[in-house]
Write a structure and sequence with these properties.
The complex is a heterodimer of chains A (102) and B (601).
Chain A lengths: L1 H21 L3 H26 L3 H31 L17
Helix pairs in contact in A: 1-2, 2-3
Chain B lengths: L1 H21 L1 H4 L3 H26 L4 E11 L2 E9 L1 H24 L6 H20 L3 H19 L6 H31 L7 H5 L5 H18 L8 H4 L5 H10 L4 H8 L1 H4 L4 H21 L5 H20 L3 H28 L16 H15 L5 H15 L3 H26 L13 H16 L14 H26 L11 H7 L4 H51 L4 H22 L1
Antiparallel strand pairs in B: 1-2
Helix pairs in contact in B: 1-3, 1-5, 3-4, 3-5, 4-5, 4-11, 4-16, 4-20, 5-6, 6-7, 6-11, 7-9, 9-12, 11-16, 14-15, 14-19, 15-16, 15-18, 15-19, 16-17, 16-18, 16-20, 17-19, 17-20, 18-19, 18-21, 19-21
Pfam family, one (chain A): Oxidored_q2
Subunit structure (chain A): NDH-1 is composed of 14 different subunits. Subunits NuoA, H, J, K, L, M, N constitute the membrane sector of the complex.
GO molecular function (chain A): NADH dehydrogenase (quinone) (non-electrogenic) activity; quinone binding
Chain lengths: 102, 601
């Protein structure tokens, strides 16, 4: 039983990673990050169930709370980014690039 | 404790003098103040030393003061070993040091670096006392290097003159060559004696295997040859006369240069039972005595003549080490007194004649009795005329050589005694009796003359030092015969000098071919220059121009270039500024680290 849950968690995590790396839309990337967080939360929940204690559940609650906080920050940030460039394509935000190297 | 005062007084003195000299303009300190402070250290040190001498002469004392180093089994204590040898030597050093400090007040009068001079002199005295009194070879080496650096600083005291700086460097570098040997010897000694307490008492009980002992002995001899200016490391001593005259007297005649002899005697536990190193040393000493004596007969600079005679007399001491260290120490002490006297009276003459040092430009000074008598006493003492101190000690060495069967050394030393008398009285007659016009005379300060008179007494009566030393006495009859023989030899030397230079009139000396070679010091300096300096220069030029410029520098440049090219390519493809590619790198390298750590652990 546990293996199935872990398999689902890994699948979710990998989908999240692929989303972060491959997608261009910031909203989609953001959702993919949430997906990765959920995958981890699922693992914690599974292990808490297997080990018959509540520590994992507590951490899951913590993760959900922090994910909510992160979501509010992230959405505000995306709004600001959109305001400055009128686009949500991640490739337009290249300010981190070192001007001398190109 | 008295020994602390003996050592600390000059150290504190030099420290204060140094600090106050640097701030003399701010504080407005006068020369008198520096003179007082400069005298305080040596006087306190001498008084303490005299008390110490009176208290503990006759029984040897090993004082441990504190632990200096303690690293993983390597432990060195700072401590002092007071036996009859070190006590006599230390009181001799403290006494002469004090006198010469007093003399310097007159000699350095009005000099810009007055305070600095006394700072160095105090430091020298402290180092010399450490060298003499130390109870282990490492602490002795501290003093050994201390006197070396003071000698360097004082030779190059007038550092505005390039020649003086060169002379200082020469002394310093030649001494480093010797010290290199000494240091290797110390390390070998430490390794060979592992397990015992590393001081003279502990080392006394170690039995070294002969080959190791010979190796260490030769290393130490290298140090002694450099410090005591013997063949082949002697060329620094004549040049060292560039320093102020009190330095020549204190450091380069009476105390520091004799450190080599003292060291060999101090390490008797090592040298005893080894015939080879000591015989070699004696051979070098005898050859050096003759060689320096020959050069001295043609030198014209009053101080250089005395410098060569110092080297010659040190040769006597080294020669004596092979059969009687007592006689060597005896000559060390008497020589210290009369050579200091000679240098100091030469200094008085130099001051009186406005820094004229060429003996052929002096003349007819015999009416100035305050210059005449000290020089006469010194000359008689060094020539070995009864009853001056030099007679007894030199006779002890020459007779010792004969009685112990060193016939070659005996012959050389006896001949050198005549040579010594000749070149000394050549100087004496030229300065005091020749008809050459001398510059107008200048008044000599009292402090210089006073010290000269005191030293006159010691040049006359210094033979009493024999009571503190362990010297073999053959029968009285033998001694009288030997004394008469060496007196006759000296008298012949004096007579030749009298014939040639009494009422001498020419401002130069006529020279044949051999004589001009002698006057040029056998071109030893030039040979050294050619063999060592020039070749080193050539090698360094080769390394600089070919190896460095043509090989190493391009290599360095190339590697920098390659690195730059690589980094530019790398940066162009990786630093794209795209968040998703950065996220990919992060993920990729996290995976790599995980796999790597899994594979390793």
């Amino acid at each position: 039983m546990v293996e199935n849950y872990i398999f689902v968690a890994i699948l979710l995590f990998v989908i999240g990673i692929c989303g972060v790396i491959l997608r261009k839309n910031i909203f989609t990337i953001f959702m993919s990050i949430e997906l990765m967080l959920n995958a981890v939360a699922l693992l914690f929940a599974i292990f808490a169930r297997v080990n018959l204690n509540l520590d994992g559940q507590v951490i899951v609650m913590l993760v959900i709370a922090i994910a909510a906080a992160e979501a509010s920050f992230g959405l505000a940030l995306i709004t600001l980014l959109h305001k400055s460039k009128q686009t949500l394509n991640i490739d337009s935000f290249k300010e981190l690039k070192d001007g001398n190297a190109s | 404790m008295l020994v602390n005062i003996v050592i600390l007084a000059p150290i504190i003195g030099s420290f204060l003098l140094g600090i106050l000299y640097l701030s003399r303009r701010v504080l407005g300190l006068s020369q008198g103040f520096f003179a007082f402070l400069g005298m305080a250290g040596p006087v306190v040190s001498f008084v303490a030393m005299a008390l110490l001498f009176a208290n503990s002469y006759g029984n040897s004392l090993n004082l441990e003061l504190f632990n200096w180093l303690d690293i993983a089994g390597f432990s060195i204590n700072v401590g002092f070993y007071l036996d009859s040898l070190s006590l006599v030597m230390a009181i001799f050093v403290a006494f002469l040091g004090m006198l010469i400090h007093f003399y310097s007040i007159g000699y350095m009068d009005g000099d810009e670096g007055f305070g600095k001079f006394f700072c160095y002199m105090n430091l020298f005295l402290a180092s010399m006392l450490i060298l003499v009194l130390a109870n282990n070879p490492i602490l002795m080496f501290v003093g050994w290097e201390g006197v070396g650096v003071c000698s360097y600083l004082l030779i190059a005291f007038y550092f505005n003159d390039k020649d003086n700086v060169k002379a200082g460097n020469k002394a310093f570098i030649l001494n480093r060559i010797g010290d290199f040997g000494f240091l290797i010897g110390l390390i070998a000694l430490y390794l060979a004696s592992s397990g015992v307490k590393f001081d003279y008492i502990g080392l006394n009980e170690v039995s070294f295997s002969p080959s190791v002992a010979i190796f260490i002995a030769f290393c130490f001899i290298a140090g002694a040859l450099a410090k005591s200016a013997q063949i082949p490391l002697y060329t620094w001593l004549p040049d060292a006369m560039a320093g102020p005259t009190p330095i020549s007297a204190l450091i380069h005649a009476a105390t520091m240069v004799t450190a080599g002899v003292y060291m060999v005697v101090r390490f008797e536990f090592l040298f005893a039972g080894l015939s080879l190193p000591v015989e070699v040393l004696a051979g070098i000493g005898a050859a050096g005595a003759l060689f320096a004596g020959i050069i001295a007969t043609k030198a014209t600079d009053i101080k250089k003549i005395l410098a060569y005679s110092t080297m010659s007399q040190l040769g006597y001491m080294f020669a004596a080490l092979s059969y009687s260290s007592g006689a060597a120490m005896y000559h060390l002490f008497t020589h210290g007194f009369f050579k200091a006297l000679l240098f100091l009276s030469a200094g008085a003459i130099i001051i009186a004649l406005h820094h004229e040092q060429n003996i052929f430009k002096m003349g007819n000074l015999k009416d100035n009795k305050s210059l005449y008598y000290p020089m006469l006493f010194g000359m008689l003492a060094i020539s070995g005329i009864f009853p001056f101190a030099g007679f007894f000690s030199k006779d002890a060495i020459i007779l010792g050589a004969l009685l112990s069967g060193h016939y070659t050394i005996f012959a050389i030393l006896l001949f050198t005694a005549g040579l010594t008398a000749y070149y000394c009285f050549r100087l004496f007659f030229l300065v005091f009796y020749s008809q050459n016009p001398a510059p107008k005379q200048h008044k000599v300060p009292f402090s210089m003359l006073g010290v000269n008179y005191i030293l006159c007494l010691f040049a006359l009566g210094g033979g009493f030092m024999a009571i503190f030393l362990d010297i073999n006495h053959p029968t009285l009859m033998v001694e009288i015969i030997a004394g008469v023989v060496s007196m006759v030899v000296s008298a012949i030397g004096i007579f030749i000098a009298y014939k040639k230079f009494y009422n001498y009139k020419n401002c130069e000396e006529k020279m044949g071919k051999f004589e001009s070679i002698v006057a040029n010091k056998f071109y030893i300096d030039e040979i050294y220059d050619f063999v060592f300096v020039e070749n080193l220069k050539r090698i360094s030029c080769f390394l600089r121009k070919i190896v460095d410029d043509k090989i190493l520098y391009p290599l360095v440049e190339l590697s920098a270039l390659a690195f730059r090219a690589f980094s530019q390519i790398y940066a162009r493809y990786t630093q794209s500024g795209l968040a998703s590619s950065y996220a990919f790198y992060m993920l990729f390298f996290i995976c790599v680290i995980i796999i790597f750590s899994k594979a390793i652990l």
